[in-house]
Design goal:
The chain is an all-alpha fold. The protein is built from six helices and no strands.
């Protein structure tokens, strides 16, 4: 029983507490930062301030969603372990896969709710594709084809003369 409780705390309670505490701290710092344009009352300043507030709210939503996804993915597995219910191997494996997959969802959440992340990902993807294309082009360039398709030198047979 002690081992089970330690597993529950180390695999669920502690990580969830840490990510929620850190994301809460980030959110508080984010909202304490002064929004650009607070000292001005013109229309452009208000639009800029509203845009920054909207981005801050989206960032907080994104961090909350990461915490919720972690909790939703890990809770079933943790509860089964904690309750010591005997489940089939397939069910246990499925719950464990769900728990472990929680980190796989984070990039999709970031991409969905963060324009900067989305732009960076697309730039990285494009740069990677460009490098791949350049590498393939250099392999299939006319110069490399000449090297690989050149026929062996002809030998003259002087015995038949």
């Amino acid at each position: 029983l002690v081992h089970t409780i330690i597993d529950f705390v180390l695999q669920f309670v502690m990580p969830l507490t840490v990510i929620c505490a850190l994301y809460t701290r980030i959110s508080l710092r984010l909202f304490r930062r002064k929004v650009t344009g607070d000292n001005f009352n013109n229309k452009n300043s208000n639009a800029k301030r509203n845009s920054q507030l909207r981005r801050k709210r989206l960032t907080v939503k994104m961090m909350m969603l990461v915490c919720v996804v972690f909790a939703v993915c890990w809770l079933p597995y943790s509860l089964v372990l904690l309750s010591r219910h005997v489940v089939s191997d397939a069910a246990g494996t499925s719950l464990h896969v769900l728990a472990m997959s929680s980190v796989c969802y984070n990039p999709f959440i970031y991409c969905w709710l963060n324009k900067g992340y989305r732009k960076g990902f697309l730039a990285f993807k494009t740069a990677g594709l460009d490098r791949f294309r350049r590498r393939n082009e250099s392999v299939s360039s006319p110069h490399s084809q000449r090297l690989t398709t050149t026929a062996p030198p002809k030998t003259t047979d002087t015995t038949q003369m």
